[in-house]
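Lecture notes, unit on binding sites. The following record was shown on slide 14. It pairs a sequence with S-adenosylmethionine.
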Amino acid sequence: MVPTPIGNLDDMTPRAIEVLRQVDWIAAEDTRHSARLLQHFSIPTRTLSLHEHNEDKRTAMLCERLKGGESVALISDAGTPLISDPGFVLVRRCREEGINISALPGPCAGITALSASGLPTDRFIFEGFLPVKSLARDNLLTQLKERECTSVFYEAPRRILDTINDIQRILGDRHIVIAKEISKAFETYVSGTPQVVIDYLESDAAHQKGEFVVMVSPAELNASEIPPEAMALLNALCEHLPLKKAAAVVAKHYDLKKNALYQAGLDAQR
Ligand code: SAM
């Protein structure tokens, strides 16, 4: 598995170039698209296509070649193969048949965007592309109401505005971040409420062009989900401490969200 750049050719690693030069075959999502990359790095290796419409047939053929002692590198149009790209059928079959597989580390839009987003990175869910049909999209976004980790999506330029509007309709003022054109000349991160992102996208037609990663922050814990013993401690501490301080102490003690406890404390005082 050989990752390739997502916008900047300098992100191609020396090891990726070396492997692509050494293997017998390169299986590429789109051989014509990859020809430019291979030409740029003077990689003369023979290519064949492996995409979603021929993956089953190609997998059988490639497994035979691999068992016969030939070596194959898999690349996609950009980034890490199999991450919203073809290759899963091939890798699964190779594992089933005991064929050795190795993956090189390298560019991946979702991970790159997440690392610069400022959103929690300790737990996250990568969702790939949102479903196109509106009912399925709404159902998926509704799941995010309760999700307590960051969600990462890929989105096409023609749907980016609709997607952010859907997020606003279903999740309200939830903090989101979009990463546009990572590693390219006009790389941009926009962070804030969905309205902040909508204003950015609508302020210039060029802002809706390019490639996007959309990230949604985790849901804050609801007051109803705070364990009763944490609530009891909060109430007791509030007799001696300001609410903000008490919420911080309880949050640390029970590994809960400070803001959720603060809000619950306010509700209780009311
Ligand atoms: N395999 C790739 C990877 O490792 O990231 C992803 C392939 S997927 C078909 C393409 C999507 O990835 C784009 O529609 C966009 O959402 C995201 N993407 C790829 N390159 C990007 C970039 N330079 N900036 C932002 N998003 C990018």
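Take-home: Residues 6-7, 76, 78-80, 83-85, 108-110, 154-156, 179, 181-184, 211-213 surround S-adenosylmethionine (CB under 6 Å).
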